[in-house]
Amino acid sequence: MSSVHGLLSTACRRLLSPGGAVGALNVALCRHVHAGFQRLQASTENASSAAERAQTQSSSNFRLLPPIPGEDSGLRWEGKKFEEIPIAHIKATYNNTHINVTTPENKALARTSCGTEGFKNAKKGTAIAAQTAAISAAAKATGKGVCHVRVVVKGLGPGRTAAIKGLTMGGLEVISITDNTPIPHNGCRPRKVRRM
Q1: With contact defined as beta carbons under 8 Å apart, do 96 and 125 qualify?
Q2: What is the pTM of this model?
Q3: What span, in angstroms and rounded, lies between the C-alpha atoms of 141 and 171?
Q4: Is the CA virtual torsion 48, 49, 55, 56 positive or negative?
Q5: Closest CA to 67 of 146, 150, 155
Q6: pLDDT by residue (tens digit) across 8-60?
Q7: For the range 127-131, what are the long-range contacts, defined as Cβ-Cβ under 8 Å and sequence gap of 24 or more?
Q8: Lowest-confidence range among 58-62, 69-73, 120-124, 192-196?
Q9: Of 40, 47, 43, 45, nearest to 8 (Cα)?
């Protein structure tokens, strides 16, 4: 910017020099050029400072991980904090999948499983059964005013990912997914291996 300012000032000096054509028109032209340059410089400074403020503000609000419990976050979903959003508990076993949508205070809003949706025997342990149960749970939860949910998954059954997909297909927006599968640290002795 300083080099442009220097070029403008030398051009104005040449116009106003005794050897050049001196007149009221040249003086007005120099004043107009200087005023325009000053306006341009002020607007670029304002724009750059506004961009820096917006960048720092957006980077301070953005987080890759959900907030730690008890930590305040600037993010809001329909005016609710992260801790105030309902939780969808998914328990995926090898034989069935249970979905329970609760409030943050653990009051049940909607509860379904593959068995309650009409699947029987071995079909309860399939991914399609889990997806159907999740769509039903999402429909019940949206009927009670739930739009956003946090998902907590427990278990290693085939309906883990299908249930999350079913919640989104049912009209709920998933904000975070937490895996809460219990992992033994060499606890109980496992059952004997099944011979086929």
Answers
A1: yes
A2: 0.62
A3: 9
A4: positive
A5: 150
A6: 566 666 666 655 455 665 666 666 666 777 777 777 777 777 767 766 655 55
A7: 127/158, 127/159, 127/161, 127/162, 128/162, 129/97, 129/159, 130/92, 130/97, 130/99, 130/157, 130/158, 130/159, 130/160, 130/162, 130/163, 130/166, 131/159, 131/162, 131/163, 131/165, 131/166, 131/169
A8: 58-62
A9: 40
What tokens were used for 24? 């009221």
Residue 77 DSSP symbol = B
Q: Are 114 and 129 in contact (CB under 8 A)?
A: yes
Cα distance between residue 129 and residue 109, in whole Å: 21
Contacts of 148 (CB under 8 A, 6+ apart): 77, 78, 80, 85, 86, 172, 173, 174, 175
Beta-bridge partner residues of 92: 97
Q: Using alpha carbons, select from 63, 140, 146, 64 the residue that is nearest to residue 104.
A: 146
Q: How is residue 150 written in tokens?
A: 């946090």
Residue 19: CB atoms within 10 A of its CB come to 6
